[in-house]
Specification:
It is a single chain. This protein has about 110 residues and is mainly alpha-helical. It is about 70% helix and about 0% strand. Helix 1 packs antiparallel against helix 2. The N and C termini lie close together (about 10 Å). This is Vacuolar protein sorting-associated protein 53. It comes from Spiromyces aspiralis.
């Protein structure tokens, strides 16, 4: 994710530098949009994978949530076990993910 983000920025800078150096007649045809889109797609794929990993880590809690017989509950109690499980996974992973991402927009 970080590498793709860096490359998007570098690609824009490279496009600008080349545009300054080439003949005026070629400038309108100079575009690195395809490369930028591909790099943004790579960053997006990385983000999706991170989300999938966190979802997988929460799978047991989601399964427990799905098995709960909500109609048979007589009263609302304290925090459910599945909520505690999800909170634990998020506490362990989100901080690491945030620290690993160089650009806050991806967080």
């Amino acid at each position: 994710i970080n590498t793709a983000d860096y490359c998007v920025t570098a690609t824009g800078q490279l496009e600008q530098k080349i545009s300054e150096k080439i003949n005026d007649e070629y400038r309108p045809r100079l575009t690195f949009n395809y490369a930028r889109e591909a790099l943004l797609s790579a960053a997006n794929a990385g983000i999706k994978q991170l989300v999938r990993e966190i979802e997988d880590m929460c799978a047991d809690a989601f399964a427990q949530f799905g098995r709960t017989k909500w109609g048979s509950l007589e009263s609302v109690g304290d925090q459910s076990e599945y909520v505690t499980m999800i909170a634990s996974v998020l506490d362990q992973t989100i901080v690491v993910v945030r620290q690993g991402l160089s650009n806050p927009k991806f967080y």
